[in-house]
């Protein structure tokens, strides 16, 4: 695995990133793709949303059970977005605002500045909201009242 | 990176996997998680859909430009789901049908049998369909008529 580029983010340390129930990820930033991969971005402008697969490069080790910021109860790591995972891979859906050469300006960043990007893929279709069940997260929201 | 488990799929070779415009991914299969990671699945049953991050273990090398099965024109690799990527990482959204211990029965498999799984994450929210733009894929669909 080699970084195809790096995230330019307003978040310099983990404490800067909004967390917990109702946290909004509306920060703008750049996906700064390495020049040698720029041709791989051809026609990406046509997509409104992208999947970004990235490395939790400032996380070490993993916990199979952990209590996420959005709940006061522990859950399995594969049922959460915890950074402490067996393979430290992150996944974020971002909205593509514009492209300038090998740099993609995006909204919805929740990564730290300098995060290595492993892959970018087009977001092609959504699961209809009415078909989604959101497990412990929906329960935690129900216990603490409606989302802000 | 180490596999946290393996996909059990009806697809034994790449030619078995439905491809091209209108291809449906409704195959059922198993995400067979290694026993030592089973605790990481705690509470996953509450989620209707999961992201599966996996390795294209039977793909070698990459092409920055390629013509996908759903079009007759080339596009950048980061605007397609091509297996020939700088980092050979795949991403699939599956519907979780049931769990039996460390095995998750899922629908929507488009991986080959034996594919190494790198991570599993809960699918928490969708981009509303009305806000999605699907670039070259929508154009290819428009050229060839409505989806079957």
Commentary on this structure:
The structure is a homodimer of 148-residue chains. With 148 residues, chain A is mainly beta. Helices cover 7% and strands 32% of the residues of chain A. The first copy, chain A, has one helix and eight strands, in the order ββββββββα. Chain A has a six-stranded antiparallel β-barrel. In chain A, strands 4-5 form a two-stranded antiparallel sheet. The longest helix of chain A has 10 residues, at 135-144. The interface between A and B is large, with 55 and 55 residues.
Average pLDDT, all residues of chain A: 95
How do the SSEs of chain A run, as a string of H and E?
EEEEEEEEH
Supply Rg of chain A. 16 Å
Helix share, percent of chain A: under 10%
Beta content of chain A comes to: 25-35%
Report the biggest beta sheet of chain A as strand number plus sense, adding barrel if it closes.
6 strands, antiparallel, barrel
Shape of chain A: globular
**Category by helix and strand content of chain A:** mainly beta
Which strand order spans the largest sheet of chain A, edge to edge or round the barrel?
1-2-7-6-3-8
Sequence stretches where pLDDT stays below 50 over 5 or more residues of chain A:
none
Chain pair forming the biggest interface: A-B, 55 and 55 residues
How far do the termini of chain A sit from each other?
39 Å
Number of strands of chain A: 8
Counted by DSSP, the helix tally of chain A is 1
**Multimer state:** homodimer
Pick out its properties:
homodimer; mainly beta; 7% helix; two-stranded antiparallel ribbon; globular; 148 residues; 8 strands; six-stranded antiparallel beta barrel
């Amino acid at each position: 695995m080699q970084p195809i580029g790096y995230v330019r983010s307003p978040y310099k340390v983990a404490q800067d990133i909004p967390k917990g129930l109702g946290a909004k990820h509306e920060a703008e930033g750049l996906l700064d793709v390495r020049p040698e991969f720029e041709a791989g971005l051809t026609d990406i402008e046509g997509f409104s949303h992208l999947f970004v697969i990235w490395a939790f490069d400032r996380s070490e080790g993993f916990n199979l059970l952990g209590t996420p910021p959005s709940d006061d109860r522990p859950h399995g790591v594969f049922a959460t977005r915890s950074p402490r995972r067996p393979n430290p891979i992150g996944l974020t859906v971002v909205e593509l605002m514009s492209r300038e050469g090998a740099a993609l300006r995006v909204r919805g960043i929740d990564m730290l500045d300098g995060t290595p990007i492993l892959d970018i893929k087009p977001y092609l279709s959504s699961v209809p909201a009415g078909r989604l069940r959101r497990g412990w997260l929906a329960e935690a929201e129900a216990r603490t009242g409606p989302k802000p």
